[in-house]
Amino acid sequence: MPTITFDINDLNKLVGKKLTKEKIQELLDYSKGEIEAVNGNEISVKSADTNLPYLWSVEGIAILFKGLLGLEKGLKQLKLEKTKDTVIVDKSVKDVRPCIAAFSVKGARVDEYLLKQIIQLQEKFCHSYGMKRLKVAVGVYNYNKIKFPVYYKAVLPESVQFMPLGFKREMTLGEIIESHPTGMEYAHLLKGFKSYPLLVDSNKQVLSFPPIINSEHSGKVLPGDSELFFEATGNDRGAVQLAANIFAFAFAERGFKIREVTIDYSGKKEQSPAFFNDSIKLKAEDANKLLGLNLKETEVKHLLEKFRYGYDKGKVLIPDYRRDIMHPVDVIEDIGIAYGYDKIPLRSMKEYTLGGTFPITKFVDKARELAVGMGYQEIYSPMLCNANLLYSQMNVEDFGTVEIETPMTELFSCVRTWILPQLMELLSSNKNAEYPQRIFEQGMVTMKKDLKDFERMAVVTAHTSASFTEIKQALDFIMNNLGVKYDIENTVHHSFIPGRVGRVVVNGKGVAYIGEMHPKVLANFGLSVPVSAFEMNLTDLFETIKK
Predict the structure, then answer these.
(1) How far is it, in rounded angstroms, from Cα 462 to Cα 467?
(2) Which carries the bigger pLDDT value, residue 335 or residue 168?
(3) d(CA 415, CA 407)
(4) Facing residues of 329 across strands?
(5) CATH for 359-546?
(6) CA-CA distance, 251 to 355, in Å (whole number)?
(7) Residues 6 or more apart in contact with residue 509 via CB below 8 angstroms
(8) What is the mean pLDDT of residues 528-538?
(9) Please, is 428 exposed, middle or buried when counting C-beta atoms within 10 Å of its C-beta (0-12, 13-18, 19+)?
(10) What is the assigned CATH class of domain 279-342?
(11) How far apart are CA 428 and CA 389, in angstroms?
(12) Are 167 and 180 in contact (CB under 8 A)?
């Protein structure tokens, strides 16, 4: 939850009205924000909404406040000046960091306070929404030190050298990664890439080495500068464009004129800032039904305009500095906030129900308690995983995985289909710890076929004498206490040693695999002790014994 600091007098100037601390807190309630500290005229505000990064600046807060106070009405839009400035994007950045947005500003002047506000928004945005620069990183430059067109390309680490911000000598990109404090902090973002992204102007002056650091030459904004160049790079086109939009609106609040820049993707040109012009259909009766109100369409329009939406005959126009609206319910939430949840009339309950636990939940919890009773330690892993861990390291083929279309990282690029690989990974991370290690995890997995979820439990024992007999004793203990009779049939499962693996069958239904882990799997995880394990489908087991 980002916290920003600004001067109350500056906020009042941007809003155009003198606000008390009490009034500021009242207005912050509309944005899920709160005053964290006040020191004279300096105020610190914490935002609880990570989906609205435009509010991580005093300029963004001023935009909202002016709508709430009725000082400005409805959708706020930018006026852009045309220029011939161009950023030419080379195909070489496609694999490393393919997206960029940019614009320039003029007409106002930077002072010490404004410079701190620019840096604050830059840091908060890149750290939180930008996922510590992985998703988005931004740079601000002295426009007058740049010769257009600017080139965005990928180069070999030792082929270019420049003076990074805060240093007094030139360094290659490789040296920056290895010895510059900022370079070392963010080196992991470029790990595995042979070429690194670079922004350079037509005079062959380096602007920056994104997402690492700007150059000392043009990437250093000073008090007194009145023309600036902004760029955002990243792996997500929408996120990069949102960054440009948010900063453009912030600069416009300061009286700067916003100037377009052409982004040339190998002949395919687009203007930046590239506004989204998003909209969503909404009926007044839908809002009334969900909120329990009886608002007229004119009232809905008024409430939406307070939150800086536009509205035209059932069509809600979304501000270009927002990308958090996914469904009409998101808009209805803002209508409710603008109306005031405390003003919504109370209603008495018409139906009364008794809460209870699903039978399968009791069944699952009993299985967990039995594993704990045997001295196994319970583990909790994320449901998101990656195909390499689930299959390649486990020596099996993919058996139907739900993948994430735009994952934040390759480590969490799909939904897990079984739990045992994550327990093996944990053993790998603790191979220098004392043995024996006996662990288990119960949780949900998702299969691509029919998009069905299952409750599963994996149990693992690892030490020098771990064997099929030991893990079968654990299975016996759980099954006997659940009142379940089972058989073990010969089977083939390439995660286990042939001849030391079995299929657990209950009433003709296969519900688990049990065995000793294959040496190849142990080698993949760097394990030097035997590991025995079983993984049981508790959903199938529960449904089988119910019949």
Answers:
(1) 9
(2) 335
(3) 11
(4) none
(5) 3.30.930.10
(6) 53
(7) 540, 544
(8) 97
(9) middle
(10) alpha beta
(11) 12
(12) yes
CATH 3.30.56.10 residue ranges in the chain?
A: 3-68, 279-342
Distance (Å, whole) CA 416 – CA 88: 41
Cα separation of the two ends of the chain: 50
Distance in angstroms (rounded) separating the CA atoms of residues 468 and 500: 7
How far apart (Å, rounded) are the C-alpha atoms in residues 232 and 237?
Answer: 10
Q: 284: closest CA among 267, 265, 301?
A: 301
Within the chain, which residue ranges are assigned CATH 3.50.40.10? 80-272
Backbone torsions φ then ψ of 99, nearest 5 degrees? -110, 145
Q: In this structure, are strands 196-200 and 206-209 parallel, antiparallel, or unpaired? A: antiparallel
Q: Point out which residues pair with 39 in neighbouring strands.
A: 42
Q: How far apart are CA 124 and CA 250, in angstroms?
A: 14
Structure tokens at 348: 């008495």
**CB proximity list for 127: less than 8 A, separation 6 or greater:** 2, 133
CATH of domain 3-68: 3.30.56.10
Q: Residue 61 corresponds to which amino acid? A: I
DSSP state of 128: I
Q: Which of 304, 299, 260, 264 is nearest to 281 (CA)?
A: 304
Q: What are 143-157's pLDDT values in tens digits?
A: 999 999 999 999 999
pLDDT above 80 for 78: yes
Q: Are 430 and 422 in contact (CB under 8 A)?
A: no
Question: Coil, strand, or helix at residue 203?
Answer: coil
pTM of the model: 0.71
Residue 353 is encoded by which pair of tokens? 């129900």
Burial of 219 (0-12, 13-18, 19+ CB in 10 A): buried
Contact 290, 329 (CB under 8 A): yes
DSSP code at position 215: B
Let me know: does 173 contact 155? Beta carbons within 8 Å.
yes
Angle, helices 8-15 vs 21-28, to 10°: value is 70
Please tell me the distance from the alpha carbon of residue 504 to that of residue 276, in angstroms, as a whole number.
Answer: 55
Strands 496-506 and 487-490: antiparallel
- The arithmetic mean of pLDDT across residues 68-93, rounded, is 95
What's domain 80-272's architecture?
3-Layer(bba) Sandwich (3.50)
Query: Does residue 131 come out as left (phi exceeding 0), alpha (psi in the -120 to 50 range) or beta?
Result: left
Neighbours of 257 (CB within 10 A): 16
The model's pLDDT over 468-493, given as tens digits with 9 standing for 90+, comes to: 999 999 999 999 999 999 999 999 99
Decide: 401 and 516 in contact? Cβ < 8 Å.
Answer: no
Q: At 352, is the pLDDT very low, low, confident or very high (cuts 50, 70, 90)?
A: confident
